[in-house]
Amino acid sequence: MLKSLNQNKSMTLGILGGGQLAKMLATAAYRLGLNVAIIDKEANTPAGDMTKLEFINGWNNRSELDKFIDVSDIITLENEFIEPDILEYIASYKEVFPTAATMRLVQDKFIQKSTLKSNNINSLPVFKEIFSINDLHEFGNRYSYPFIAKTRTLGYDGYGNFTIHTPEDCAAAYNKFNNSNVSRPLMAESFVNFKSELAVMVARNRNGETAVYPCVETVQQNHICHKVIAPARIAENLRTEAQKLAVACVDAINGIGVFGVEMFLAQDEKILINEIAPRPHNSGHYTIESCHCSQYENAIRAILNLPLGSPQMRMPAACMINLLGERNGIGVPCDVSSTLADGVSSLHLYNKKSSRIGRKMGHITALGSTMDEAIAIADNAYKNFVW
Amino acid sequence: MLKSLNQNKSMTLGILGGGQLAKMLATAAYRLGLNVAIIDKEANTPAGDMTKLEFINGWNNRSELDKFIDVSDIITLENEFIEPDILEYIASYKEVFPTAATMRLVQDKFIQKSTLKSNNINSLPVFKEIFSINDLHEFGNRYSYPFIAKTRTLGYDGYGNFTIHTPEDCAAAYNKFNNSNVSRPLMAESFVNFKSELAVMVARNRNGETAVYPCVETVQQNHICHKVIAPARIAENLRTEAQKLAVACVDAINGIGVFGVEMFLAQDEKILINEIAPRPHNSGHYTIESCHCSQYENAIRAILNLPLGSPQMRMPAACMINLLGERNGIGVPCDVSSTLADGVSSLHLYNKKSSRIGRKMGHITALGSTMDEAIAIADNAYKNFVW
Predict the structure, then answer these.
(1) Helices (H) and strands (E) in chain B, counts
(2) Which end of chain B is more exposed for a tag (fewer CB within 10 A), N or C?
(3) For residue B224, what pLDDT band results from cuts at 50, 70 and 90?
């Protein structure tokens, strides 16, 4: 199973993208005895540094892509913005997961939500296709203000979202994404005044077997994930409901690999699906230390159709905090001693070659016998980190 | 602290040796955001595959060594057989730990035990230098048979040991190591009829601060470590005594890095020191999943003089079983599905390019709420592994 198709050596896992998710996938792959190939559009990415099989001209360069395909036995991705046509091209030579078909259902958020709805998953905000300023007005009039206008594709960390508070915002929202420079398909969604944001990671292998991680709580700052609390501090029946919903979502898109399902817990305690990430997810970093099998290893097990590992936590509580860049400049922190001094928190630095303000540069995970303990350890380690 | 000395980039950790210990060191280094360089005398070693900074002509090739030193900011080792002169040469350019001085105290087992004794560490078997067959007879007559003749240097996994049961064995033992082909300095040690074999990993940084891992029990088969049980199933006061002894040993050799101290628990419940390994150790593999900070990460923290991580276990019990080669041929197993099926054991495959019977090819770690649980999981996963 782990043998390369063509030779008496180990399989090579090809990863589209070389960022921190690829780095943590590569780490899991090496542990399982695999080789790793990375393709990205630049050199010296976090994962690219970890292998000689590094292809730096990007997957849109056909000859570079061909070389990458050639050395890989099976291929996956860390980036949800890859054109499904590229995945289809790859699939004509080597197996690639998630499939082009799954990515087509996920990348366009209107198609994504429509797919869920047609699979009888109704825990969704109200959503509609938008083709004009007038469509936005109609949505607001019918479902009330505020609501969200969002680009159907390519949005992340809040980019591509516009909150429409009053009818006067409709034109500005529409024109932001459709003007002489850009033309982006839009959708509208009802605004969820949430109590908390939740996420569940689901690994699903080629037999359709799933491993479902605990429902976690994500805390955003400036639309970027700041902190993840595992498990979420909500009633157990709600956590279970979130897990069931997440599995239904991944089944609906026939997902093979690992998927992050982001959800809102509304004020009325209804759970509403926000979106699906078809890859390892920031909200699952904590699984490396906390769970018997991490989201990264399960991503690999899933695509190799191996039995999935247990998503159960080894300790009762975990807290993960992202380390975002606080300067534009080199990516190496001044000192990590104060953060490491507690002895129990786990520091991950991605070794990105440059830092930008707000860029994800690393993270800290702390486990605890209680949630208060895990959060206190993580908060303290984070406070002591010096860029 | 993590910045390269000369440039605005991350430090590069150079590792002498590219085997599985280097692979697990490299994994910990990458997680901390470091780069990794590997030197070994062949290509495609487990750790060499994980970096472009791979030097394949060995450290005895001066120009190869120079290139390795050049790209490294700080250097460590996974192999205790490196000539101290090489370490001294390296130290004239870059910091290297453990130091040549420490290695001189460890590599020759007679000097090692003499050093411990001169530091008032008396939990030792009787030991003596041996220069002749007659010296062996005298040792046997004075301290009784059976006893062990062992080469003072280069022994591992039982190679270099000869058990002398009767006076008639003395000549054979001596002549095995001293004949027309070889001439190896010898020592004699009293035979310890042990109840169990113990080991304690100690990380010690440049400030002399230590992190002491739990006392574990090692089970050998054919002189090779088969299983590690953490913590050891002995009285707590004995485990504490073993930990104190281990720290005293590492202090005595002024060790900087991580060290494995192997001990015997004799029938009379006395603990006797067997030997010190100046590097990460097979008996500490379990720390990756079990402890807040693994022996590998603490080895790196120690040589960078960072605060050491906690050696405490996250769950009460762990069991590690080595996967030894069962054929001479390719290093990839036929199937790992059955081993992975339990979902909770952690499989490590080293991706060695060829297997030999008895060669360390991987390992399995299982954690448990109880020792019985951990052992049962590991035994079952091991039983299901198919080479």
Answers:
(1) 12, 20
(2) N
(3) confident
Neighbours of A70 (CB within 10 A): 12
pLDDT tens, A193-229?
999 999 999 999 999 999 999 999 999 988 889 999 9
Which positions 251-290 of B are in contact with A (Cβ < 8 Å)?
Answer: 289
Which of A297, A381, A386 shows the shortest CA–CA distance to A347? A381
Judging contacts by C-beta atoms under 8 Å, the chain B residues touching residue A341 are 307
Residues 125-184 of B with CB under 8 A from A: none
Q: Which of B110, B177, B186, B192 has the alpha carbon at shortest distance from B143?
A: B192
Residues making up chain B, counted from first to last: 387
Mutation site for A-interface testing, chosen from B27, B54, B351 by largest number of A Cβ within 10 Å: B351
Structure tokens given for A32: 């399982």
Shortest alpha-carbon distance between residue A123 and chain B (Å): 31
Q: Do A353 and B9 touch (CB under 8 A)?
A: yes
DSSP string, A257-320: EEEEEEEEEETTS-EEEEEEESS--GGGTTHHHHBSS-HHHHHHHHHTTPPPPP--BSSSEEEE
Count of A–B CB contacts within 8 Å? 152
Tens-digit pLDDT profile for residues B89-99: 999 999 999 99
Q: pTM to 2 decimals?
A: 0.96
pLDDT category of residue A7 using cuts at 50, 70 and 90: low
The string of DSSP codes covering B47-79 is TGGG-SEEE-S-TTSHHHHHHHHHH-SEEEES-
User: For testing the chain A interface, which of B34, B51, B323, B336 should be mutated: the one with the most A CBs within 10 Å?
Assistant: B336
According to the model, what pLDDT value does residue A1 have? Answer: 58
Contact at CB, A336 and B51, closer than 8 angstroms = no
User: Which is nearest to A272 in space by CA: A126, A148, A149, A125?
Assistant: A125
Shortest Cα–Cα distance, A252 to chain B (Å): 25
Place of tokens 């409709």: A170
Residue type, A238: L
Q: Which of B1, B45, B43, B42 is nearest to B26 (CA)?
A: B45
Residue in A closest to B4 by C-alpha:
A332
d(CA B130, CA B140): 12
B295 and B284 Cβ atoms separated by less than 8 Å: yes
Tokens 């062996």 correspond to B136
Number of CB atoms found within 10 A of residue B123's CB: 18
Q: What are the residues facing A258 on neighbouring strands?
A: A203
Q: What is the DSSP letter of A110?
A: H
Q: Among partner residues B51, B52, B337, which is closest to A306 by beta-carbon distance?
A: B337
- Give the tens place of pLDDT for each residue, A64-123: 999 999 999 999 999 989 999 999 999 999 999 999 999 999 999 999 999 999 999 999
For residue B199 the two structure tokens come to 């080991």
C-alpha–C-alpha distance, residues B96 and B89, integer Å: 10
pLDDT digits (tens, 9 = 90+) for A318-339: 999 999 999 898 888 888 999 9
Element (DSSP H or E) covering residue B258: strand B257-266
